[in-house]
Amino acid sequence: MLVDTYKYHYIAWKTIGTSFNFNLTETQNERLKEISRADSLDLMLGWAETEMNQEQKEVLLGKKTNTT
Questions:
Q1: Is the pLDDT of residue 10 over 70?
Q2: Given CB 3.0 to 4.6 Å as the disulfide criterion, which of 17, 29, 47, 62 pairs with 22?
Q3: What is the C-alpha to C-alpha distance for residues 49 and 68, in angstroms, rounded to an integer?
Q4: pLDDT at 43 over 70
Q5: How many CB atoms lie within 10 A of CB 30?
Q6: Domain extent listing, the chain
Q7: Cβ neighbour number for residue 16 with a 10 Å cutoff
Q8: Residues 44-61: b if buried by 16+ CB within 10 A, e if exposed
Q9: How many whole angstroms separate alpha carbon 28 and alpha carbon 65?
């Protein structure tokens, strides 16, 4: 059985984005498919014109892992 997890990943990324005042759109989320979590976060940070150090990124990536 295949399960479509798209909506769960979208919700998780959207939640992560709100932590740095970024509202991820479904169109932007499409660009996150099939790339790593770290690359997805970097892309979102670029869209939000926000910078974070590696430690801050690791915290958010941990939250993403625990959300989906």
A1: yes
A2: 17
A3: 25
A4: yes
A5: 10
A6: 6-67
A7: 20
A8: bbeeeeeeeeeeeeeebb
A9: 19
Instruction: Name the CATH code of domain 6-67 (choices 3.30.930.10, 1.10.150.240, 3.50.50.60, 2.60.40.10).
Output: 1.10.150.240
Span 26-48, mean pLDDT? 96
**Can you give the length of the chain in residues?**
68
* CB distance 65 to 37 below 8 Å: yes
pLDDT of amino acid 2: 65
Question: In this structure, what token pair is assigned to residue 24?
Answer: 């991820």
- pLDDT of residue 42 exceeding 90, the answer is yes
Instruction: Write out the two tokens for 56.
Output: 């801050």
